[in-house]
């Protein structure tokens, strides 16, 4: 989506991640936008507070709309002051940003081949989905298959490769404890979303069985959504998503809160170029961000990829597993508007797979 600073000729871009309710998000964006047309876009905090603090607040639909609008406002503000957004948030805390690459898919198979491709391209850190569907109590054959995949990576690359393993909320507490413990000897970089955040008490149970860093946060939004996680003391890495958590400044606030608890951050960003560019702005000024997810070539992208939508593709050029600090004003993006219009005309209504367990009960995806 685009937002214009009327009278100044400045446009800003934001990205709204629709999840499985594209039409709902589009309708909601028009409804919410009516409340800010004609406002001063530089008053970002004031506008954010007014959009957020309604009687029925939060939720993935409302927060993805607010997040997209907020990104666009920051893009305008950066362009207005002719500075990257991070310069308006305190300035740089680093020289470069470490990134990791996805391998495998929803049903991971030849992970060694995929990992070798990433290593050849200079990455030393990857992430993979751990498992397919798992019932509350399931076969140890599935556990063994996960362990074998991770073991094959460790056997091939030794400790030179950092391996993140994403449980994706697919694993219930009984099996999560087992799987986490079985993976620990292979020294994962982190275990992500070992249980769903709505079962956050399960993080405590898993943490009793392993010393591997535990990560979560991609489904949470605002500072208030992260309070219990931070106070629990069992999560080592938070993964807020700028396109859901409330936008650039709110995500920066969440990561700063985590720093006070000595917790690292690895922001979630598997979507398009605007949300990734916004996330990089946060990374630059956040010292506890240790690595960044990026979606180039990710298995979820079908038919087009992150670079297809930007003209200045060099902004996402990775060198030896790092990306340079952005230097252009605002988000630093030159969007290919023709490509955006072309893809939007197709009508993108994505839904996640509907997985079933062996007995026909609904499985988490």
What does this structure look like?
The strands form two sheets. Strands 3, 4, 5, 6, 7, 8, 9, 10, 11 and 12 form a ten-stranded mixed β-sheet that branches. This protein has a two-stranded antiparallel sheet with strand order 1-2. The chain is of the alpha/beta class. The two termini are 28 Å apart. The mean pLDDT is 93. The protein has helices at residues 22-33, 44-52, 60-80, 111-120, 140-157, 173-183, 201-207, 222-232, 242-245, 248-260, 273-284, 337-344, and strands spanning 2-5, 10-13, 97-103, 125-129, 162-166, 190-192, 214-216, 237-238, 264-265, 292-293, 318-319, 322-323.
Radius of gyration: 20 Å
Query: What is the number of domains?
Result: 2
Task: Give unreliable regions as ranges.
Answer: none
CATH superfamily of the largest domain: Enolase-like C-terminal domain
The total strand number stands at: 12
Structural class: alpha/beta
Ends distance: 28 Å
Mean pLDDT: 93
Q: How would you spell out the order of helices and strands?
A: EEHHHEHEHEHEHEHEHHEHEEEH
Give the % helix.
25-40%
Beta-strand content estimate: 5-15%
Could you please say which CATH topology of the largest domain applies here? Answer: TIM Barrel
| Shape category | globular
- What is the CATH-assigned architecture of the largest domain? Alpha-Beta Barrel
Biggest sheet, open or closed, and with what strands and sense?
A: 10 strands, mixed
């Amino acid at each position: 989506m685009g937002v214009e600073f009327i009278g100044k000729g400045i446009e800003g871009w934001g990205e709204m991640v629709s999840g499985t309710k594209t039409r709902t998000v589009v309708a909601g964006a028009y409804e919410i936008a009516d409340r800010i047309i004609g406002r001063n876009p530089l008053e970002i905090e004031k506008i954010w507070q007014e959009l957020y603090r309604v009687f029925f607040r939060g939720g993935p639909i409302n927060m993805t709309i607010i997040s997209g609008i907020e990104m666009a406002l920051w893009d305008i503000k950066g362009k207005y002051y002719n500075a990257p957004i991070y310069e308006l948030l305190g300035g740089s805390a680093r020289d470069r940003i470490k990134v990791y690459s996805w391998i495998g898919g929803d049903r991971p198979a030849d992970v060694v081949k995929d990992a070798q491709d990433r290593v050849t391209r200079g990455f030393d850190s990857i992430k993979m989905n751990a498992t397919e569907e798992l019932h509350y109590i399931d076969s140890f054959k599935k556990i063994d298959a996960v362990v074998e995949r991770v073991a094959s990576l460790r056997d091939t690359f030794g400790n030179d490769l950092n391996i993140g393993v994403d449980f994706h909320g697919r694993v219930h507490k009984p099996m999560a404890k087992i799987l986490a413990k079985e993976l620990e000897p292979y020294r994962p970089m982190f275990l992500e979303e070992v249980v769903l955040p709505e079962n956050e008490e399960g993080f405590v149970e898993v943490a009793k069985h392993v010393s591997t860093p535990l990560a979560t946060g991609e489904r949470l939004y605002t500072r208030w959504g992260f309070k219990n996680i931070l106070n629990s003391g069992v999560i080592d890495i938070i993964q807020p998503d700028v396109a859901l958590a409330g936008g650039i400044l709110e995500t920066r606030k969440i990561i700063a809160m985590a720093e006070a608890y000595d917790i690292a951050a690895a922001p979630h960003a598997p979507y398009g170029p605007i949300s990734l560019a916004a996330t990089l702005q946060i990374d630059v000024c956040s010292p506890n961000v240790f690595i960044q997810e990026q979606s180039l070539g990710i298995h979820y992208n079908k038919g087009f990829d992150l670079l297809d939508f930007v003209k200045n593709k060099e902004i996402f050029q990775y060198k030896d597993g790092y990306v340079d600090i952005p230097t252009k004003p605002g988000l630093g993006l030159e969007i290919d508007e023709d490509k955006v219009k072309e893809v939007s005309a197709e009508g993108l209504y994505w839904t996640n797979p509907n997985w079933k367990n062996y007995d026909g009960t609904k499985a988490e995806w």
